[in-house]
Sequence to fold (199 residues):
Amino acid sequence: MSKFAIVFITIVVILLLCVGKYVSVKNTLVQKNEAVKSTWSQVDVVLQRRADLIPNLVETVKGITKQEQAVFGEIAQARSQLLSANAPADKIAANQRLDGALGRLLAIAENYPQLRSSENFLRLQDELAGTENRISVERKRYNDTLQDYNTYVQQFPASLFAASAGFKPNTAYFQATEASREVPKVNFNSPEPQPAPVR
Fold:
């Protein structure tokens, strides 16, 4: 066999190996990218469930705490942004604003004894707590899946093929909100606020 034939066969074998590796990497990238989309859709479902609970919760609180209009406005705006957002990064940002506004609403509710004893409010609060737990679980699952995808995209040899196949790292992680980092302030000396009269 001539040297030319050996070189030719070697080049063909190397090309076949490269094409095979490219196909393998691309298939894995597609699989991991679809896993990210699937876990994101689960997050989206529980975020939608919470968004659906909020109007009833707000209306229940509004009936007793009519003077808290600023918080109601914040919640309405944050909910609207969440429902109109399409990209995961936009939904995550809107969700963080909604987390803060809901936290303020629930803190206000603590100041109204008749609200804390309202059966409707307690039921909605329980449903919201259950939904928050689901959001937490799905958020963790989404972040783990996204991390797996990002690690694969950036590791050798996938990093050689990822960009040319149209895949790049995705930075749309859920992170702790500023509101969740704040330490609640408790003052046992301040008198309990008087609720607004119900009309």
About this structure: The radius of gyration is 26 Å. The longest helix spans residues 3-62. The domain at 32-169 is CATH 1.20.1440.20 (de novo design (two linked rop proteins)).
